[in-house]
């Protein structure tokens, strides 16, 4: 989807249309931008940018509160549109998914035609635009979907994949952030074609295990299947506050609220975790995490809150204020996941 949250707001509220808009954050400079409209992006405003920075770049920017229930409802409708064409759908987030249309349900026979029909349905039924990338594997399709946004449609056929990757700037590759991109450029590696010149052992020597991925991907090799069921690796909640917290009492009150949200999500997913992690972001935007692991899985609210507060007590907060707190559980373990799947499918399974 194109600037999903912001586009929904501009669709529903005519006064926002054609204006620089940020979903999330605030005009006081507190908080972080979740999504920026294309009008705001022209000024350099981006997702995950602080409100303060967004205001500096675009003084007239409008901030609105997220309406996640609305976005979820729209996302559900979009998923229903997808399901008309294929059952092989792998959601990445509310606004993005992989679709395998090798066996399309309507017998259309063309991935390009299917993408055009999906885009048209989204526009007609939801009055929103989407961009699609079509290719032979996940990597190329994902990159292609970001080309010609908004309302883009890019097809990279089998005969074009090699040339496409050869010309692709290194910063467009998965796993290549600013630090890695800078390192590559110091090594005179600017494109996929440049990476392709290095043997696999050299890529691993310079970039660790990701080097194996780079070696394959620059040759167009990506055999990952579209996964219709993604295992939950972690589950949590966090909050960025309207003002920096400076006392333990304030932090405890916020942790109580966050803990209840996490507890409810665990119960909804029928999960228990062995590891509880506390996330803290200070007023200067530095961030730390602290965690504690148990011998057996837990989903008890009192244990979650007690552990989070114990972890907070071990952090040096002297002369520091806190702008964000988060709690998450992970390390669910194979037994819990498999048991949950069995229960969902109505199967009775025994595990040793």
UniProtKB/TrEMBL annotation:
Catalysis: reaction(s): DNA(n) + a 2'-deoxyribonucleoside 5'-triphosphate = DNA(n+1) + diphosphate
Binding note for cofactor: Binds 2 magnesium ions per subunit.
EC top class, as a word: transferase
EC number: 2.7.7.7
UniProt subcellular location: Cytoplasm
Keyword annotations of the record: Cytoplasm, DNA damage, DNA repair, DNA replication, DNA-binding, DNA-directed DNA polymerase, Magnesium, Metal-binding, Mutator protein, Nucleotidyltransferase, Transferase
GO molecular function: DNA-directed DNA polymerase activity
Essential cofactor(s): Mg(2+)
UmuC domain sequence ranges: 1-177
NCBIfam families: PRK02406.1
Subunit-structure text: Monomer.
HAMAP family, sorted: DNApol_IV (MF_01113)
Protein name: DNA polymerase IV
Gene name per UniProt: dinB
